[in-house]
Predict the 3D structure of the following.
Amino acid sequence: MGRTARIVTAVVGTAATLALAATVISLDSDEAKAGARQEQSAAGNADKASHSSGILLAHGADRHPSETAADWVTYADHVVEVTPVTETRIEPDQEAVDRGEGLILRDVKLRVDRVLWSSEEATETAPQTFNWTAHGWMFGGGEDDDSSVVTEMAGEGEPRMELGHHYIMAIEWQEPRCGTDDGDIPGQWRGLGSGSSLPYDASTIGQGEFEGTVRSADAARAAAAEGAASDSTVLNEFTGGDASDLVDELTRAEPVPEEPDPSAPPVEVCG
């Protein structure tokens, strides 16, 4: 590994606070390189900067357990099939610019193509569209702290949420919150954790964009088989299947005792 990333944090759709770790995936395949070029082009001014030949993966604590169907029916309000339709760069704040390193996040608009499952306890109907704060890029932190170095970033064990792909997501409505350290936070649709978003290109679970690279159905099955023995997740269990297989399991699954959201401070819910 050519360098070590400084530890920084960001709030994104799936996890509350994510720390960047010095984990880099080499872009060996043509598909991965093509995806990186597309994102570089979409980055506006960032396409003029030098890019690392890898993807920086972010780690963090999940808001809720999200690995099993039981987790999904416990914490999710809806499970939906979505397509990203637009994305906008979220520019770093002036402090990060002055420091010469920080994050460039993305505001991704997701279109809900189909509602696959809904909780009987959901207080909000499933949205037709919703916005999602997604990983984008990290700038700076290269050799000699060169701020022109821009590295594509994704979350470990989850899709990056890119245009041209399709996904299945378990989402929860978070009520508006008042009196937080960041001021008042409007109500929004949130994910459960890193296990609550699945690639779903060609109506096949596991096929498509994952951690910023594009996987075929065969590659997804191989990865699922490799991790199945020690990592029983929704993704591993249903890779290669379609949404109906997952819906059948969600219908049978029983909720489990809820665990508190570690990212939720004791603040007032706005009236």
